[in-house]
Design goal:
Layout lengths: L1 H6 L23 E2 L7 H12 L4 E9 L6 E4 L3 E3 L7 E3 L8 E9 L2 E8 L6 H9 L13 H4 L4 H13 L5 E9 L6 E5 L4 H12 L16
Parallel strand pairs: 1-8
Antiparallel strand pairs: 2-7, 2-8, 3-6, 4-5, 6-7, 8-9
Length: 223
């Protein structure tokens, strides 16, 4: 908030004067794009566009293991975790949720995915992938750290631990936002490059020639 207010004293209130300009949020530990709105008229319009699914978002995610299908949809319903109310879970009677995905690169015991959330449930991407057995790499809350490192082959375990040290949070990055401007009606798209530590992990795989070794480990086989 302090950084935003330093940048501009003309931000929307959006019904909450303590969160000026904020129209949506990212999970703690998720990097990338967030939209800030400068007046209440546009704030209302953008909020409606989010509700109507007219704001298109793409995330880049590094996950454990391989997806059986290289392109598909995850549609597990999501609700509050019964044993830990700070977390979410895939539950039968939860709210409907949909994530479209495509596999970009397979790298030994991990895969790089593009995720396109159609709905916007709390922790949706992290829950969807964790429920498949392919949690997001480095995710503290949804099984993406030490336990998964123990499942890779012994010769790869040292590398997995090293990569987790480079990535203190989940390897989830809001990479693209696209929408039609509510005033000008022009199509707008924003992109954000990966953070340096995320890039460092991918470069390690590239340097050690670990790409496309999809048979190294049997983590999270899914439909």
């Amino acid at each position: 908030m302090n950084a935003l207010l330093h940048y501009s004293n003309s931000l929307s209130t959006g019904g909450d004067p303590f969160r000026p300009g904020i129209v949506h949020r990212l999970d703690k530990g998720t990097s990338g794009l967030i939209m800030i709105v400068k007046n209440d008229k546009v704030h209302s319009a953008i909020t409606t566009m989010f509700m109507n699914r007219e704001i298109h978002k793409e995330y880049t995610a590094l996950i454990w293991g391989m997806m059986t299908k290289k392109k598909g949809t995850i549609s597990d319903s999501i609700g509050r975790n019964r044993s830990d109310r700070t977390k979410m879970s895939a539950v039968e009677n939860g709210k409907s949720a949909r994530t479209d995905y495509s596999v970009d690169v397979e790298m030994d015991f991990t895969s790089l995915l593009t995720l396109r959330p159609v709905t916007g449930r709390t922790h949706q991407l992290r829950v969807h992938l964790s429920n498949l057995g392919n949690p997001i790499f480095g995710d503290h809350e949804y099984g993406g750290r030490g336990r998964m490192a123990g499942m890779v082959t012994p010769e790869r375990r040292k590398l997995a631990v090293k990569l987790l040290e480079i990535l203190p949070n989940q390897a989830l990055h809001a990479s693209k936002l696209s929408f039609k401007h509510p005033v000008t009606q022009k199509n707008i798209e924003f992109e954000a490059p990966l953070p340096e530590n995320y890039q460092s992990v991918l470069e390690l795989f590239e340097t050690d020639n670990f790409r496309a070794k999809s048979n190294s480990v049997e983590i999270g086989k899914n439909d």
